[in-house]
Amino acid sequence: MAFAVRFLDRRGARTPRDGGRAIRRFLSGIRIMFHGITRLAASGLRYSADLILPPVCVSCATLITHHNMLCPQCWSSLYLISPPVCDRLGIPLPGYDGESPHISVQAVANPPVFSRARAAAHYSGIMRRLIVRFKFEDKHEPLPLFVRLMRQAGRELLSEADLMVPVPLHRLRLLQRRFNQSVLLARGIGRLCGVPVEAMALRRVRRTEAQVGLTQEARQANVAKAFSVHPRYRKSLAGKRIVLIDDVLTTGSTANACATALLDAGAARVDVLAIALVAHGLAEREEEDPGYARFGG
Fold first, then answer.
1. With bands split at pLDDT 50, 70 and 90, how would you rate the model's confidence at 219?
2. How distant, in Å, are the alpha carbons of 91, 110, 111, 148 from that of 107?
3. CATH architecture of the domain with range 79-294
4. Model's pTM, two decimal places?
């Protein structure tokens, strides 16, 4: 037998519809209370975890207020890249005025295959040390910092992107290192900005030698035809605006080789986004980095 729960008020008996509304309000209140308890419990767990493992600067280990960040002193030591920059290469152009795109002499003399490049900081000092630890010492604490800086530096590229593709490692290099730093960066950025990542679209089909100490011409020859697009992904890349993700942009040889492979597969445009930029060729990358030559690209 069907029946309805009726609620009484000062005006008399309510209809079953009124009773349904009251039940929904009651359930909504329960959900809000449950979410509040959940947030309070999570906050308590985080506080307990901070007591055991307090947040420290990812560079100097000074106590700070948030995990995976830099202390004020280390932050002030970063050489972040800010406009104006060359629209093609992303290198700083101090003294340039106006908001129209600026093109550097280097870009005019040797135009890159990719359309635009951006980087968050210069590859020097603290940033260089953090990247070396991340890549070669398996220290992933700076990863959230890298992701936020790259998102800020590449906001224009990412706002127009259809896909992100990380620079691949050769399978033997991946086996040795156990992770591809560019894939981790791309996935972190993707979670923040919502741009999908095709981590397996681009392959390094030939193991290349270490680039350290090579001239720009030798670097270009070293990575020539070292990359190809997996046949399975050609259709998904066709006509897409792609942001290529890398850790450090030096002469652009690797980025050019990857962009060539992606454009040959039908991509509409390829931009490049990196953590750091070597603005003066090889000098800063080789200085203070004696172990780098052991790790080819």
1. low
2. 10, 5, 5, 27
3. 3-Layer(aba) Sandwich (3.40)
4. 0.76
